[in-house]
Amino acid sequence: EPEVTQTPSHQVTQMGQEVILRCVPISNHLYFYWYRQILGQKVEFLVSFYNNEISEKSEIFDDQFSVERPDGSNFTLKIRSTKLEDSAMYFCASSEAFNTEAFFGQGTRLTVV
Amino acid sequence: AQSVTQPDIHITVSEGASLELRCNYSYGATPYLFWYVQSPGQGLQLLLKYFSGDTLVQGIKGFEAEFKRSQSSFNLRKPSVHWSDAAEYFCAVAPYGGATNKLIFGTGTLLAVQP
């Protein structure tokens, strides 16, 4: 069964460092998303991406964040200068169309120290 | 603003007992509704979805959910819980008339199953 895969599963970084979280969406999907879940809190939408551009972003997704689809298979989230409050589980998701269900990856747990 | 409420933070049931997890939403139109499950150390797995049509939807792992427009609810049920069902369950809404590019999640219900 096709699935969304994310790497790494756990990343520890020092405050102020840049991190790149990687995702391989399901191959025939056209819409890609990032969500995050701070420990003990709800899953929150960060950004959606379609046709090589951001289609929507939340207020959380400030200038420190960027997304990219560098090739035909990967979808990345970059945090330029990490802060302690960026520590969270980051989920990548993809969907076939804008109104079909989103399939989520297993998440990357980011710990900023 | 759109919102999703899961009033039960933590529920404990005995194995073999029935289960109902509550979900209420606040949205002007009829949204698309979802239940996801997150097992420890795992990602979010879609259990079932409601887009339109029959208000009782069947999902994977023996789960079902019923959409009740009059109550703005989408409660998840299972007639007999198995120990492997212990996990966190999230209700979610797609608010833009079906556009799933911005799901709004509830805070989750953590299910514990005792022998």
Layout: helices, strands, pairs:
The complex is a heterodimer of chains A (113) and B (115).
Chain A: E1 5-7, E2 10-13, E3 19-24, E4 31-37, E5 43-50, E6 53-57, E7 65-68, E8 75-79, E9 88-95, E10 103-104, E11 108-112
Parallel strand pairs in A: 2-11
Antiparallel strand pairs in A: 1-3, 3-8, 4-5, 4-9, 5-6, 7-8, 9-10, 9-11
Chain B: E1 3-5, E2 10-14, E3 19-21, E4 24-26, E5 32-38, E6 44-50, E7 56-58, E8 64-68, E9 73-78, E10 87-94, E11 104-105, E12 109-114
Parallel strand pairs in B: 2-12
Antiparallel strand pairs in B: 1-4, 3-9, 5-6, 5-10, 7-8, 8-9, 10-11, 10-12
Task: Give short descriptive properties of this protein.
heterodimer; A: 113 residues; mainly beta; four-stranded antiparallel sheet; B: 115 residues; six-stranded mixed sheet
Can you describe what's shown?
The complex is a heterodimer of chains A (113) and B (115). In chain A, strands 2, 4, 5, 6, 9, 10 and 11 form a 7-stranded mixed beta sheet that branches. A 4-stranded antiparallel beta sheet of chain A has the order 1-3-8-7, with no helix packed on it. The radius of gyration of chain A is 13 Å and the shape is globular. The model of chain A has no long low-confidence stretch (mean pLDDT 94). By secondary structure, chain A is mainly beta. Chain A has no helices and 11 strands. In chain B, 0% of the residues lie in helices and 50% in strands. Chain B has no helices and 12 strands. Chain B has strands at 3-5, 10-14, 19-21, 24-26, 32-38, 44-50, 56-58, 64-68, 73-78, 87-94, 104-105, 109-114. In chain B, strands 2, 5, 6, 10, 11 and 12 form a 6-stranded mixed beta sheet that branches. Chain B is globular. Classes of the chains: A mainly beta (113), B mainly beta (115). Chains A and B meet through strand 4, strand 5, strand 9 and strand 10 of A and strand 5, strand 6, strand 10 and strand 11 of B.
